[in-house]
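Dock zinc ion; give full complex structure.
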Amino acid sequence: MFDKKFLEKLNEAKKIVFFTGAGISAESGIPTFRGADGIWKKMKPEELASFDAFMRNPDLVWEWYQHRRNIINNTKPNAGHYAIAEFEKYYDVTVVTQNIDNLHRRAGSTKIFELHGNIERNYCINCRTFYNSPELEITSGVPKCKKCGGLIRPDVVWFGEVLPQDQFNGAEAAAEYSDICFVVGTSAVVYPAAYIPMSAKQAGSYIVEINIEPTELTRYADYSIFGKAGEVLPQILEEVKKIKS
Ligand code: OAD
Ligand code: ZN
């Protein structure tokens, strides 16, 4: 079913990177950004996902993140997340995700770089005290810092903001040292995150794309598998088990 060259690569590989986007969580019921009913089809990012938007209307922005937290808290990792976690039995695996939903960690992956932050964490914009989401009191609008009264924001990357340097650097190093870089469920149009698979490619890693449709990355990929992440990843894991047994 899979390409012979790809199976050879799976046999030889030691270090594997999974670079993931919203598509891996789609089968858990979390909306993606750019599909037909993607979030950015209905909402304007500059009105919800920027620091200016937050300062203009902190309650609105906070409530939108609360809404997304509720969706995330009521969902579970899917077969794709679990397959990635199980790859750790066979390879040195690094997950590099653009998602803020924490589902890779909940599925059991241990080495994760989060390029766009994590919706479970929040911090005060004045004094940078950190708060986990569950420990914040449920308020109708934006919560205030217990130490200084400042506004608390989600620890996610908004438009116009820089990515967390340690996460990006760690991700880039892992990509450059990887033998295979899987690019799963991302449109690969948002930079600088989308540099990660390009860095892997330039350093000689074998790029395998898994997506339901072609993307910006398809022409750079060594191998493209078109299908749902929650179906394709478990199938690849089965091949790995055969190879390694
Ligand atoms: P997008 O919504 O841009 O892309 C989702 C991708 O997943 C598309 O290429 C779909 O074809 C694919 N897809 C959908 N369902 C799938 C499935 N079941 N299996 C496999 N693939 C599937 O999401 P991202 O690429 O993650 O940034 O978007 C990147 C960034 O843009 C996000 O991190 C977010 C957004 O603005 C920030 O919030 C900073
Ligand atoms: Zn504070």
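Observed: Residues 1-29+78-116+163-245 form a domain with the Rossmann fold fold (CATH 3.40.50.1220).
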